[in-house]
Amino acid sequence: METHDDELIHFEVHGAAPLPPATIESHVERDGARIGYSSYGAGPAVILLHGGLGHSGNWGYQVPALLRSGRRVVLIDSRGHGRSSRDARPYSYELMAADVLAVMDELRLDKAAIVGWSDGACIALILAMTVPSRVEGVFFFACNMDPSGTLEFHPTPVIDRCFSRHAADYAALSATPDDFHPFVEAVGLMMRTEPNYDAADLGLIHVPVAIVLGEHDEFIKPDHAEYLARSIPDAQMIYLHGVSHFAPLQRPAEFNAAVVNFLDGIGTRKNEGLRR
């Protein structure tokens, strides 16, 4: 029987499940930053992009499931997050999207599916807009694409527990372990003012996309998620029941099933195209 962590009590104390040993673990120097990444397994590539203030270790429940499904899994610590460093320039989603491309180039990945969570979802969709030839599809979980898409912030015990874990992980992983509060301020500024894409921009996306939202998401308006699904050609709208912004941690089996189903659909679509 699956263990749920709906209140993130386990996550606050222990973090996500430990990651398995990596096949490749390294970094790439790019544009004033050192971007850490790791790769696991073999097969069609899927890149997992974590949320703001977190790090790639937050995907500990997802990596084994994706490996079992026969995929190569690539994790990236976003600029300034986890083991990745940054310079003094402001954060931007476009800058972090370019970092992902640099990792793909370093790993010689011509193309990959991308699973993005919160800020990572925004980064993934920017890649789908700007370099569609590199993107097999995007599983877009729990983010906005313009500032109007966010709910008014109300702290909750679940959010507080997640923030506490992020603070502990930052101190343990970062090259600047005492700078958590400036880090939060800098990322927060980006979140308040970006991204800024409109329906015309979204209409230019022509890779498979699933817009996914937890039933009880604390940050994203459901009508914004539905607007994204309407605006992106042929996008799916998926609701995950009983979970919030932290579904990959709260009920990983259900989240993983949705991800694998989406990725399998991309593979089926690709194979049908080859047979025509």
TrEMBL record:
Pfam families: Abhydrolase_1. InterPro entries: AB_hydrolase (IPR050471), AB_hydrolase_1 (IPR000073), AB_hydrolase_fold (IPR029058). Residues 44-143 form the AB hydrolase-1 domain. It comes from the Bacteria. It comes from Rhizobium pisi. This is Alpha/beta hydrolase. Keywords: Hydrolase. The keyword Hydrolase applies. GO terms for molecular function: hydrolase activity.
